[in-house]
Design brief:
Elements (H helix, E strand, L loop, with lengths): L1 E8 L2 E2 L5 E2 L9 E6 L2 E4 L10 H11 L2 E4 L2 H10 L7 E4 H8 L9 H7 L10 H5 L9 H26 L8 H20 L1 E3 L1 H30 L9 H9 L1 E3 L2 H8 L18 H10 L1 E3 L1 E7 L8 E5 L5 E7 L8 E9 L12 E2 L2 E2 L3 H10 L2 H30 L5 E2 L2 E3 L9 E3 L18 E2 L15 H10 L3 H27 L1 E8 L2 E3 L2 E3 L3 E7 L6 H9 L3 H12 L2 H11 L3 H22 L2 H10 L2 E2 L7 H35 L4 H4 L4 H24 L30 H30 L1
Parallel strand pairs: 1-6, 6-7
Antiparallel strand pairs: 1-4, 2-3, 4-5, 8-17, 8-20, 9-10, 11-14, 12-13, 15-16, 18-19, 21-24, 21-25, 22-23
Helix pairs in contact: 2-7, 3-6, 8-13, 12-13, 15-23, 15-24, 16-19, 17-18, 19-21, 20-21
Length: 756
């Protein structure tokens, strides 16, 4: 039996102003449970259903699949309330995440239903929650209506997802959803068991680092006062910290950002690349567009008597109730006068990459680079500020995070989420327990101890988790991998052979030359041919088509977002997703550019005139215009065949990627512009080498001919350059394949024996 469930709970306001509906908070209670068409109140101020525990438990015992949205929350509450459940679960939130391929979209029940055009819920309890009324005190009929709607639309969402999973597009995702739901049960147990935190050790760690934090703060304040005088510096502000380090600031921030292209031009709204300057040019630009910061001394503001505010008086002498900020001291109460001495450390920026919108960069990476070159007091300051910031992050994030979420029993219940990251990796919050510092940096891990006497905590690093999960889901094994590998190698050889065959393919137009008498000698009368290549345009149509198709998706998406036109966004997605519409346009552009290139490079009129001048003609075709029309007709048909071939080769990597379940980096070896260029370059190189060898009376490695003068036969030059045997025809293919395999083995050896 498939059961849809949704629970409603009380909540407690946190110190930050939010709500904590955690089942592990002893102050929270399970208010009601909605199962299918039934609704039960377990702990409500107005209504409590007698015998609801046994009724709910009976339904759970008969249930094979328990369906819910973010069901880990519902299941945790049921188990904490004393219910038991041993069946399978189905989380509609996880399923929606998988169906969207991990794309970051809102996964709330309301948003999921709106995207699928399902009946969205009417949030009738919102006004009560805004007033701070907890669920157990909201009128029972409103809670029941709200809960029943949640259960109903969750079931609608489940039915809609199952309909999608039966389609050819999504049917392969059902296995992934099943594995993630099985893992969800494990995560539920992990959250309920919790993590044991030694609160005494945590307090001791906090005490030690707060003492170091106070010492560093005092040390930094003294250095700042020595360098800046009475000027107040907020070290948390990157701009003000840069004043202290570099002793200068921009005269005009907009002009500064414009010169160094540190941001977006406010007038053109156009992103610019970082300019390249020599160090001398950069130093000059910095000097011309910045002003020095001097050490200052503070004196009490006489305008407001050091109060920072002035009480305005009406015409009749009666005071206004409101105060205004002092214009003289800007509300600070003190006026700062410049001294002759330059403030700060007066460091020189090293390159344009040290520049930011506010002046100069002072992020942790930049400060670490500076520390490597700093000396004396400046080095002490940089080390102190880096350590101070690290301890501040450590105390605020890790120590206070553990303290805020650990209960009085020393148990921490972090929430683990499966549907947050784009890669499918787990994330956690309350607190983020997957981002704890290593023991060598801060000893926070020593406060995490086993819940069992004499127990130990094992740390495991899931290296290449995504790839290993993909292999598991594919149910792959070594034997099958070998078979797939051999099939891929065979397919690769076939594709290369096809590219070589079409690249070398020609239509030979016979040409006959008339006999001529010059004096007593007869010239002409020979038969020859005019070679017309099937793929006359080469790889250029594919390059042109790919270059043009790079822009429509971005332009349409920008236009749709600016004008709020859904059709433009849908059309942009059609281009970006590479569906049937994209391939139709792609093939059409390749066809157009094939004929465009042939029309530019192939000149049938000129060829016909040259043949006529030299006494040549095509048998059965009159010289002149008729020959030109004949050549144009033949080339038109050849171009059509060549463009179809180019389209197949161009889209073949995408076909392999979508059907053979291989990475796109592997799929690119089975076609595309790269393979066309590689094969063309190899063939051209071999042709050049062959010509060079034949000119010097050496046998070429293609064995197209044999030099008669080097044999016992009479020397009559070089034989015909036609390919005669199987070995000669397949040698280019074998050379290309061999070179690629050698390169692959070399890369594998480097990765195995050097990098590892």
């Amino acid at each position: 039996m498939i059961t849809t469930i949704d629970v409603e709970t009380s909540y407690q306001k946190t110190e930050a102003g939010g709500f904590d509906p955690s089942p592990f908070n002893p102050n929270n209670i399970l208010v009601s449970v909605g199962i299918n068409d039934e609704y039960y109140f377990t702990n409500h101020s107005e209504r409590i259903d007698e015998g609801c525990f046994h009724k709910i438990q009976k339904i759970l015992d008969e249930t094979k699949i328990l369906v819910g949205h973010n069901i880990k929350f519902d299941l945790s509450w049921l188990l904490e309330a004393g219910f038991t459940y041993t069946g399978n679960v189905y989380d509609t939130m996880i399923a929606e995440y998988v169906l969207n391929r991990g794309v970051r979209k809102s996964l709330t029940l309301l948003m999921c239903c709106q995207r699928r055009k399902l009946d969205a819920k009417d949030d009738a309890v919102k006004e009560y929650m805004d007033r701070g009324v907890s669920f157990e005190n909201i009128p029972a009929e409103i809670v029941e209506q709200y809960g029943k709607i949640d259960v109903a639309i969750t079931r609608q969402l489940f039915d809609s997802q199952m309909a999608d999973l039966r389609t050819d597009k999504h049917k392969g995702l059902l296995k992934t959803i099943k594995v993630m739901n099985e893992f969800l049960i494990v995560l539920t147990d992990m959250e309920r068991n919790g993590i044991n935190v030694n609160l005494d050790d945590l307090k001791q760690v906090e005490k030690e680092y707060r003492a170091e934090f106070a010492y560093l703060k005092q040390k930094i304040d003294k250095i700042v006062y020595d360098k800046m005088g009475d000027t107040k510096i907020n070290l948390g502000s990157p701009e003000q910290l840069s004043w202290l380090i570099y002793s200068k600031k921009p005269k005009d921030k907009h002009e500064w950002a414009k010169i160094f292209n540190t941001g977006v031009d406010k007038f053109t709204k156009k992103n610019k690349k970082r300019p390249k300057f020599s160090f001398a040019q950069f130093r000059t630009l910095v000097a011309n567009n910045s002003e020095p910061i001097h050490k200052t001394i503070a004196s009490q503001c006489l305008h407001c008597n050091g109060k920072g505010v002035i009480r305005k008086v009406k015409v009749d002498g009666t005071p206004y109730k409101k105060y205004s900020k002092c214009d003289e001291c800007h509300g600070e109460g003190f006026v700062y006068a410049k001294m002759a001495k330059l403030a700060g450390f007066n460091q020189r920026p090293r390159s344009v990459y040290d520049v930011s919108d506010s002046g100069f960069k002072t992020d942790r990476l930049t400060l670490n680079k500076i520390a490597g070159e700093a000396e004396g007091e400046f080095r002490e300051f940089i080390d102190a500020i880096l350590r101070h910031n690290a301890i501040s992050t450590y105390l605020n994030t890790f120590v206070e995070g553990l303290q805020n979420f650990t209960n009085d029993n020393g148990l921490l219940h972090p929430k683990f989420m499966q549907a947050v990251t784009a890669t499918g990796r787990l994330s956690s919050r309350d607190p983020n327990f997957q981002n704890q510092p290593r023991g060598g940096t801060f000893p926070i891990r020593k406060v995490i101890q086993s819940r069992f006497e004499g127990g130990q905590i094992l740390e495991v690093d899931f290296a290449q988790l995504e790839f290993r999960t993909a292999v598991f889901l594919a149910q792959d094994n070594d034997d099958l991998a070998i078979v797939k590998g051999l099939l891929m190698v065979g397919l690769f050889l076939i594709v290369v052979a096809g590219i070589i065959a079409v690249t070398q393919a020609q239509r030979k137009i016979p040409v006959q030359y008339a006999k001529r008498m010059v004096g007593r000698k007869v010239f002409g009368g020979q038969s020859s041919f005019l070679p017309l290549k099937v793929n006359y345009a080469g790889v250029m149509p594919v390059i042109f088509a790919s270059a043009i198709l790079m822009f429509p998706a971005q332009l349409l998406r920008t236009l749709g977002a600016a004008t709020e036109q859904d059709w433009a966004i849908d059309l942009a997605n059609a281009f970006a997703s590479r569906g049937w519409f994209y391939y139709i346009v792609y093939g059409g552009l390749i066809l157009v550019f094939s004929y465009f290139w042939v029309s530019i490079m192939f000149k049938p009129v000129q060829i016909a005139d040259d043949l006529k001048k030299n006494g040549g003609y095509v048998p059965g075709v009159r010289p002149g215009d008729h020959t030109a029309k004949f050549l144009d007709f033949v080339m038109t048909r050849l171009t059509l065949a060549g463009s179809i071939f180019l389209t197949i080769i161009a889209v073949f990597p995408d076909l392999i990627f979508k059907t053979a379940n291989v990475s796109y980096n592997v799929a690119t070896f089975f076609g595309g512009t790269g393979m066309l260029i590689i094969v063309g370059v190899v063939l051209d190189t071999m042709r050049q080498i062959e010509t060079f060898l034949l000119q010097r009376h050496y046998d070429g490695f293609l064995r197209k001919g044999r030099i008669k003068g080097r044999s016992s036969n009479s020397g009559q030059g070089i034989e015909s350059l036609e390919l005669k045997d199987f070995e000669a025809q397949w040698r280019p293919l074998l050379l290309i394949a061999g070179a690629l395999f050698v390169l692959g083995f070399v890369s594998l050896g480097i990765k195995t024996f050097i990098l590892n």
